[in-house]
Amino acid sequence: MNIRITWLAVAAALAAGGAHTSAHAAANAVRVCTLPGSPTAALDQAVARAVLKTAGVVATFVTHGIDDDGGDDGISAHELASALGRDCDLVAGFPRSSVADASGSQMIFSQGYLRSGYVSVTLRHPRAATPAADGKETVAATWSSPSQLIAVQEKNARFDLENTSELTVDAVAKGRAQRAIVWYPAVVAYQRAHPQHQFAVAATASPYADWHLVFASGAGMRALQSRIDDALARMNEDGRLAALTRGWTLPDSAASEAHSSAPSLESTKASYGRSAMHGPGAIIKVAATTGGNAPAFDHEQVEHGQHLYSESCAKCHGAQLEGITAPALSGPAFAPAANSHLTIGGIYQYMSTNMPADRPGKMTDQEYADLMAFLLYTNGYDTGDAKLTSEAAQLSTTPLNAGPRH
């Protein structure tokens, strides 16, 4: 199935694809784009106008935003990098988080102008419904986005995967789901378009829930980003920024749990190092933890898995598994030192069913097993003599804690 990738996946590819320094911006008005499909696009433009005016920067706004040829086959990193250099100098409304922050990209970012996140949404006055025979709650989530990754951590639930964040909210409004995990601005946008629906919003306990909107540009635009940061600071102090973003700000009741569970960017960076598989020095690991042995895998699988990862996963998860807008697949947010809530089998089942995002399930069982071997190796597990099979990976109940290799 071909489906246009979500605006968050657009941001991931944009960050992964690098950014061009625009000669146009040095001599002309700064060209500002927004991300296609983002429910905050109008807000992003309004904030950009006010910030750039405060900074004394002349700007023009690209009406079509960052886009490709309008087809349904998604937007590649190459197309996005070309659009940034050809059409845009600055992206308003780029999403960043402490877990998937695009810090490994060639882009630079301003401070955040709107803190938002993924929330749990129900109807404020739900209609009575017949309980499901199996007792499970139907939870809606947006396909190929952090909301899907948060939703699959829910217990005793079945999932209704929708193609857009608007449809995810609509699933609750129309009764297709009892609850939704969705980006909060999508709730605001939906309720403004459909004021007859009233929603209750609560926090989600996930490190993937906390996000900020920022301005993003190429590495050659540092002077511009410095002026933007100064303007944001002034607007924050005099209340203009709060006035612009009023109505879009995450409620305190929905922000507290997500924020407290999200590791800070600096603490995440301090907790682990990143290296290539054959680079000098492995990822630093803590002592081995209990919970049973991980299934065996060999070095050949690791090498093949690394190749598969580079082809199908790095665009969203980062070349070094550091996370861009899809979560990091290395480090404490993914494989903590102890007490992981994810099992190896759970990760494998989710990956083999839902990934890669552009073509879920496109790999063979053995390819998914080889990819799992690469993830295990990268997170500190040693190779052995036996091959990892799809069945062994799927049946593993071992928690995915940081492996024992030093």
Short overview:
By secondary structure, the chain is of the alpha/beta class. 38% of the residues lie in helices and 15% in strands.
Characterization of this structure:
Keywords: Heme, Iron, Metal-binding, Signal. InterPro entries: Cyt_c-like_dom, Cyt_c-like_dom_sf, Solute-binding_3/MltF_N. Residues 1-25 form the signal peptide. The model is unreliable at 1-5, 68-77 and 258-290 (pLDDT under 50). It is built from 16 helices and 10 strands. It is 38% helix and 15% strand. Strands 1, 2, 3, 4, 5, 6, 7, 8, 9 and 10 form a 10-stranded mixed β-sheet that branches. It folds into 3 domains: 7-113 and 211-261, Periplasmic binding protein-like II (D-Maltodextrin-Binding Protein, domain 2, 3-Layer(aba) Sandwich); 116-203, Periplasmic binding protein-like II (D-Maltodextrin-Binding Protein, domain 2), CATH 3.40.190.10; 267-395, Cytochrome Bc1 Complex, Chain D, domain 2. Helix 1 packs across helix 4 and helix 12 packs across helix 15.
